[in-house]
Amino acid sequence: DADVTQTPRNRITKTGKRIMLECSQTKGHDRMYWYRQDPGLGLRLIYYSFDVKDINKGEISDGYSVSRQAQAKFSLSLESAIPNQTALYFCATSDLRTRQETQYFGPGTRLLVL
Amino acid sequence: GQNIDQPTEMTATEGAIVQINCTYQTSGFNGLFWYQQHAGEAPTFLSYNVLDGLEEKGRFSSFLSRSKGYSYLLLKELQMKDSASYLCAPYAAGGNTPLVFGKGTRLSVIA
After folding, report:
1. Are the Cβ atoms of B48 and A42 closer than 8 angstroms?
2. Are B24 and B5 in contact (CB under 8 A)?
3. Each residue of B53-110: pLDDT tens digit?
């Protein structure tokens, strides 16, 4: 059983299209995150949410939006996709109730924008 | 803000020992995470150090010096499957600052 799932796992889209990446978790964690990863640049935080009604911009939020529909679901949208948004996208969760708040990652979505 | 520095790449031989260093500057430091990430896969949790000193967990050990802003991950008896990126991430106390990851050290284990 995957505790953190992401759909789709792979996506090819065209410049200008709006797409949504979805993340679901069964861990009961209150905090959720979206990262993108590019070769040589590491994991960069796009948006994060500490609770259902809480949305915060990360390091690179331009061109992205998010929705926290429920505690278990956190979606990332690319309003108008562009080629430099081609990357590997990860969703992660953490639990504030634990002392160290370890992050647990989904399997990733590989996005190609043509 | 945070500043995290770790080597970009390292190569080591199967069966050997390798040490991956991480230096950091961060306000409100609480502890430091190490994650392992195989190519194209999700990062997975390896260790979390709060106190100074070495913590051993099988073939992997992690060290922290809070006063020096320094940590290392020690991998013993290297195996080919240890070829991966290793990410360090200092964690700030207070719970309102998201984790920031270093760019990672890509370790290649060769025969």
Report:
1. no
2. yes
3. 999 999 999 999 999 999 999 999 999 999 999 999 999 876 678 888 999 999 999 9
**Using the beta-carbon criterion (under 8 Å), do A42 and B101 form an inter-chain contact?**
yes
Q: Which residues of chain A are at the B interface, by a Cβ-Cβ cutoff of 8 Å?
A: 33, 40-43, 45, 48, 50, 56, 58, 88, 90, 94, 96, 100-108, 110
**CA separation for the pair A86, B23 (Å, rounded):** 30
- From the list B43, B50, B98, the residue facing A58 with the nearest CB is B98
DSSP category for residue A3: S
Name the nearest CA neighbour of B88 among A101, A43, A60: A43
- CB of B47 closer than 8 Å to CB of B73: yes
Residues 6+ away with beta carbon under 8 Å from A31:
A48, A49, A50, A51, A93, A94, A95, A96, A101
